């Protein structure tokens, strides 16, 4: 796995003293305070970087709001960020995607979650003292961003793209994009270790669904949370042609996009 995208607990433990490393805990504040956290981690709860009112970019908070959040958390644009949660990384992956979209060059996902870290490494309840920064965001241009909108998805339906739906089976059967394949985002996680499965196993698993590096991939779910995890995993595996439908099925249905329903034979 590409360490510039996903890092192991051992990697994080070895770099905790790096003054340019910032560890971000996206769990609820009561978990951060009451259960403990990775030493030096700052609390940036999931809801703080999600904005349902942002009609332009779906649930993204907006560049200025996200920059204010990072500034308050003592994070600078040239810091290395490692994000984690306690839900196999799905909420932390959303933070990674958000930071990338707003131009942060070095942001990574912890392979596993807090429970995986807690098995072999030290935790603390001490809250780190934060020194605010002035964070100037540099959002990706539309042509650089992996995020795509309704019209781009319509165009991709006319090509040989693989549409990957990461939702639950009942959601998939209720309504899905035409020709989509259902891939449960949790399939990439080893239930026992709580970490990602080995690289070779992941590649074989994805290939079973036709999700291969030589294909154009379009990811969607309902509100773009679950696809964040799949997107990060694909990037870590070296996939290059991966589009992220930020509006997902919520936007698609609102625009009367064509859908299929029912069980897949």
UniProtKB/TrEMBL annotation:
SMART domains: RHOD (SM00450). GO terms for molecular function: transferase activity. Keywords: Pyruvate, Repeat, Transferase. It holds the Pfam family Rhodanese. It comes from the Archaea. InterPro entries: Rhodanese-like_dom, Rhodanese-like_dom_sf, Thiosulfate_sulfurtransferase. Residues 17-126, 157-261 form the Rhodanese domain. Gene3D superfamilies: Rhodanese-like domain (3.40.250.10). PANTHER family: THIOSULFATE SULFURTRANSFERASE. This is Thiosulfate/3-mercaptopyruvate sulfurtransferase. It comes from Natronorubrum texcoconense.
